[in-house]
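Morning, I've got a small favour to ask if you have a moment. Here's the protein in full, and shout if anything looks odd to you:
***
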Amino acid sequence: MSKPDKPYRKHAVAGHKLSPETQMMSYGYDPKLSEMSIKPPIFLTSTFAFETAEAGASFFRVALGMAEEGDPESGGLMYSRFNNPNMEVLEDRLALYDGAEEAAVFSSGMAAISTTLMALAHSGSVILQSTPLYGGTEALLRKFLPNYGIKSVDFFAGASEAEILEAAETAMALGPVSVIYTETPTNPTNDLVDLAACNRIADLIAEKQGKRPWIVVDNTFLGPVGQSPLKLGADVLVYSLTKYVGGHSDLIAGSALGASEPMALVRGLRGYLGTNLDPHTCWMLLRSLETVKIRMDAAALGAEKVAAFLRDHPKVKRVRYLGFLGTNNRDADIFKSQCISAGSTFAFDLADEGSAFRMLNALQVMKLAVSLGGTETLICHPGSTTHRGVDPELRKRQGFSEGLVRISVGIENPDDLIADLKQALDKA
């Protein structure tokens, strides 16, 4: 559902279309509503007063999907579990980069993922998933959702269309396929999933079962600057806003955004579960959105230099950087068709876990920590940390090596990062 046209929701000036990085400074907010404050104040309130009893009734009808003739296009402010001025401005701006019709923000990335999947899947249905995924998502799909009658069937990232179709046939034999869930590039192996193929598979599933599954894409690694899956046919994107959008390693948040129909289901379940984001964190994210493109572009440039150094180091067996895919191969073709940037998070392989640990322990500039997308460079050993809960045999099939290390390059001088890696690799 489109929001009412307001002067502070400008998409163009004198016929000139405004870019998202410009809209991040003002879209969705009018200083006249807040004592002429340039930035939205933080609305630390649990509830909002209604001007009339009738207004309150109409707001709730809209919020519950029961709108009547004469009700507003969007619900007014009611209760901060449903909406809040900081939340509404943030959601308006988040939708801009990806060209989404609707956005909803959550208390964490996993809150966004779990609420989205529980809203779009149902008991007895099957989720067709790519693998590997973020460790928390893998656990949700393989260990938690089956308790609620939601099964999953996987296909490996990088699978051919025929292989994805084979997995889809297996899934349909178990029940109706409700969701195709993928993460591209994958965490942490940086493999690519062919979104065009997923769309064609979704069409084939629709022909056989009568309803097209929702395509949900975790766009944390490259988006919103480096990839736009909604333009490639995805229905919903999920993000850990903790990562690049937040970008300063000082908050926890997530989002889902996409077409109005699936987002109405997601937003409705968010209201019941209470997985919404608090006003203060919304306010912090509004700050971060103003610089997300600058930060991601700078980090990508630094990552290119760091990856080149690692590629040439004798102790590094493999560098899983998207900028090294070359040409005239399937992965390179997928990258060219759906990615704008190689990003700044990638993995590289050392000889074994011992070598990885010795290198990590010797670092002096980089932070040895999980997460990614911060202004500082973060580095970790996924097999013993973020993906520890994934079955070891499955990790092997997913392409993990014992010496796999994930690095998220920040905005430091890349020459300093290279110097740190050089001295640490000497001790590996």
About this structure: The chain has two domains: 100-265, 292-425. The radius of gyration is 22 Å.
